[in-house]
Here is the input.
Amino acid sequence: KQEVTQIPAALSVPEGENLVLNCSFTDSAIYNLQWFRQDPGKGLTSLLLIQSSQREQTSGRLNASLDKSSGRSTLYIAASQPGDSATYLCAHSGAGSYQLTFGKGTKLSVIP
Amino acid sequence: EAQVTQNPRYLITVTGKKLTVTCSQNMNHEYMSWYRQDPGLGLRQIYYSMNVEVTDKGDVPEGYKVSRKEKRNFPLILESPSPNQTSLYFCASRGHSNQPQHFGDGTRLSIL
Here is the structure.
């Protein structure tokens, strides 16, 4: 069964710092890897989707990378801001599967 | 505005009283899905639908039913709710398999 692990479970950083969130998965037969943001009491917002044929995707201050051979993805946030405080989840979509398997998330707090 | 709409947002009810959580999307998406989110367990898929009249079980389907009679709607039915179904529920939809999922704002169910 596919497993997705996110470490650390929580992270606190001062405003302005660059940071990296980690995601690892057990199934290398990946179709795509997605990063989401969840604010308290809200649904998930898609941030970036990396297809299996891609190595990275960028959107503004966010950059996500994918290394299928090692079963890892990272989300890099540049120049963090208090508004970035949220829980970040990664989700794995396996080849031939209609299912997304989610990690448990990393709760990020950016301190002003 | 593209969106996934869930109703109700909050519901407190009693064991055994049938309830339905509605989900509607306005993006003409073929794929829709239901998840539940529980502390320490993360997001887990309940059921998904690839198109009208095509549904399949996710990881935790016990105690739930779904139907997909129209493309835009995908209701979640709890025929005899029990306290272990107290959770935060999310509906999601997407178009092509390499497009990100769009999530509703969630429905918080409490079953006493």
About this structure: Chain B touches chain A at residues 4, 31, 33, 35, 40-45, 48, 50, 56, 58-59, 90, 92, 97-106 (CB under 8 Å). Chain B has a mean pLDDT of 95. The longest strand of chain B covers residues 42-51. The CA atoms of residues 93 and 99 of chain B lie 10 Å apart.
